[in-house]
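Exercise 7. Given the encoded structure of a 416-residue chain, write a plausible sequence.
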């Protein structure tokens, strides 16, 4: 048995999977462990404001990174000039940043923030998004290089520093602004460290040229509706609840969503670890083996969701302040959302590989639009439960369609 474990550890792919999973679990476990502290010092309204701010940062990241990290992972194993590939993706930030700034200007001008953050913090969200986009590009580079340890350490450091800053400023009674300050400081620090790691691994700075900038931007525009669909689900959920119910309910919803992140953490770790493997297996025409691998992973997701849903009463009794007690009934529903979201993420890799990004974007964008419409109508009669029910139904639809088209893409690849 010892020899078997040793042999598995000596395999680089197995070792990377374990490192990704452990580091991601630990990194996401830090904010999870701090939830009792957050619920003690923050009201549901303040927690809801933080959730909306995070959503604003996320949409800014979508427009700034413009799918560059995904494009880099897809093209890395096909390119003979990998430094130029990274430089081409990196230089696109100069094009996408002004777009993000313009969008934020319009957001502030028309007063679209339901939680009324100050203009300072809204523009700070763009700076945070820029630093996070640079971090994402470096992490994509490290993942393709098989440098799982560096990826894990950067994620851990980010979570630890952010947690320390947040707790410190909460203790000084900065309330929801404690999170914003911590997010800004941590993002700048981790960006600097990640660039240092890139220089250490690559030895030279990337060659900045526009050779693949246009294809990268074209790819990014192709997946933009897909990326926006993710935001439309998580972002518009909170916006709709804030507008038609209350920011208090956004806080309760966000606590349940935060706890269900256990599933997302596990799925993201698996996806980070297996994406290079999936791309490699598909490039070697190991189609049936890749599909079987993905279905095994999905079964693992299901087990985790069931266990977490059954543990909801115990988790709230032990960890969560009584102010957030009503969120307990939302957790099982959020576990269902997380399961189908993880399924969509995993099988999207097939459509990325076969460059059917427009199809993927169409599926996710249309299902997300359907979700927003359903949530808009259901929230009046069913409140938060109506929004979550809409999310479950439309994620299920997306996962079914993406699996069907993934299998049809494989069939076309076999017949080619």
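Solution.
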């Amino acid at each position: 048995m010892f020899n078997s474990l040793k042999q598995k550890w000596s395999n680089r792919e197995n070792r990377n999977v374990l490192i990704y999973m452990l580091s991601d679990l630990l990194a996401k476990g830090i904010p999870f462990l701090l939830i009792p502290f957050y619920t003690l010092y923050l009201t549901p309204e303040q927690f809801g404001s933080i959730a909306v701010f995070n959503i604003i940062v996320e949409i800014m990241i979508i427009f700034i990174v413009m799918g560059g990290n995904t494009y880099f992972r897809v093209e890395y194993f096909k390119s003979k000039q990998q430094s130029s590939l990274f430089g081409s993706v990196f230089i696109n930030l100069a094009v996408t940043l002004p777009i993000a700034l313009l969008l934020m200007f319009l957001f502030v001008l028309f007063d679209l923030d339901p939680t009324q953050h100050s203009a300072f913090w809204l523009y700070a969200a763009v700076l945070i998004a820029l630093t996070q986009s640079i971090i994402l590009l470096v992490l994509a580079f490290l993942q393709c290089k098989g440098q799982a340890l560096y990826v894990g350490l950067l994620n851990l450091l980010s979570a630890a520093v952010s947690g320390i800053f947040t707790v410190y400023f909460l203790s000084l009674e900065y309330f929801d602004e404690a999170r914003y300050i911590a997010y800004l400081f941590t993002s700048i620090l981790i960006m600097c460290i990640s660039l240092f790691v890139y220089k250490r691994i690559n030895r030279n700075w990337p060659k900045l040229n526009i050779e693949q900038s246009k294809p990268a931007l074209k790819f990014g525009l192709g997946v933009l509706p897909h990326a926006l669909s993710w935001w439309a689900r998580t972002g518009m959920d909170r916006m709709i609840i804030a507008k038609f119910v209350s920011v208090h309910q956004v806080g309760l919803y966000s606590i349940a969503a935060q706890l269900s992140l256990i599933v997302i953490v596990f799925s993201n770790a698996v996806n980070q670890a297996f994406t290079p493997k999936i791309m490699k297996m598909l490039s070697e025409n190991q189609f049936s083996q890749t599909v079987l691998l993905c279905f095994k992973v999905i079964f693992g997701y299901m087990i985790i969701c069931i266990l977490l849903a059954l543990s909801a009463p115990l988790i709230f009794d032990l960890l969560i302040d009584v102010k957030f007690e009503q969120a307990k009934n939302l957790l099982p529903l959020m576990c269902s959302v997380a399961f189908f979201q993880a399924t969509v993420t995993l099988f999207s890799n097939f459509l990325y590989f076969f460059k059917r990004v427009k199809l993927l974007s169409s599926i996710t964008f249309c299902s997300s639009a359907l979700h927003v419409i359903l949530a808009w109508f259901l929230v009046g009669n069913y409140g938060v439960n109506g929004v979550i029910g809409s999310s479950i139904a439309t994620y299920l639809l997306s996962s079914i369609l993406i699996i069907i088209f993934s299998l049809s893409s494989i069939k076309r690849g076999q017949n080619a």
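Remark. The radius of gyration is 21 Å. Students should compare their own answers with the one above.
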